[in-house]
Amino acid sequence: MSFDLSTRITLNNGTSIPQMGLGVWKSNNTQAKEAVMLGLKHGYEMFDTAKQYGNERGVGEGLVEGLKAVGKSREDIFLTTKVFGGDQGYQETLDAIDGQLERLQTDYVDLLLVHWPVTGKYVDTWRAVEEIYKAGKARAIGVSNFDNERMQNLLDHATIIPAVNQMEYNPLIQERDILAFNQQHGIHLQAWSPLGGGAVLNDPELKQIADKYNKTVAQIVLRWNFQGGIITIPKSVHEERIQQNADIFDFELSAQDMQKLYSMNQEKRSLWYNDFSWEGGDIQESVEEWGD
């Protein structure tokens, strides 16, 4: 069986999602537009943004222009955005979605995620997300950054089980308890920060593995994600890197090399609940603005 950027996984509601896509965190609107257009040029089918990133408009413009340039249509790609922390709550979430869709220049997203489990808000937010799904404005719904305690609380109140939990996932933080819990409930884990930054990319043992396969360390890590069944969204605004990140389908890691990456786990997160003011009851959260 051959794999490429069109390789898909079927979610628990029957929607299929590409296993590999392109993220745009920390990109301004101009950069996000260019990255999406480059991604389309090089065969990417999944694009991941969020209101908090402040670049939904750029992603929307990139999709409109990029799809036209490659002769594809909206139905050919998979688009994810997320409910902003400052919009959480039942009515607030319902009120916010149309503005997000307008910025993205689409009538629907393929996946809508609750970006973070805002204390005291995320259950009501999920009720609204279920309504958005039923209205056809999202083809699948899920969450992001939900630990097992918060996920169980959500499941206790939900009528629709989340299709995805997007978590920080890379060789240094493998979320094993969360991954196991999600799998028990038919929830797919999707990786943000799949490359883990310099601590992973500069690892000398991974460099040896990369040399063996004539690949970069980043390609080795992304292939490890892929072979592990993880949905993955590396971010880049550089064409060469966007191309390189997609060049992981012409080799397969041995069981021994897969195990080497699994052995690197430190369960060390770069961002977690105590980094947000809403954990103390303040839900005021700002959209990140990176300039144009």
From TrEMBL:
Question: Could you tell me which residue ranges the NADP-dependent oxidoreductase domain spans?
Answer: 20-264
PROSITE patterns in alphabetical order:
ALDOKETO_REDUCTASE_2, ALDOKETO_REDUCTASE_3
Tell me if NADP is a UniProt keyword of this record.
Answer: yes
Q: Which UniProt keywords apply?
A: NADP, Oxidoreductase
Q: Which InterPro entries match?
A: AKR (IPR020471), Aldo/ket_reductase_CS (IPR018170), NAD(P)_OxRdtase_dom_sf (IPR036812), NADP_OxRdtase_dom (IPR023210)
Q: Source organism's superkingdom?
A: Bacteria
Which family is this sequence assigned to? Belongs to the aldo/keto reductase family.
- Put simply, this protein is called Aldo/keto reductase
Which lineage? Bacteria, Bacillati, Bacillota, Bacilli, Lactobacillales
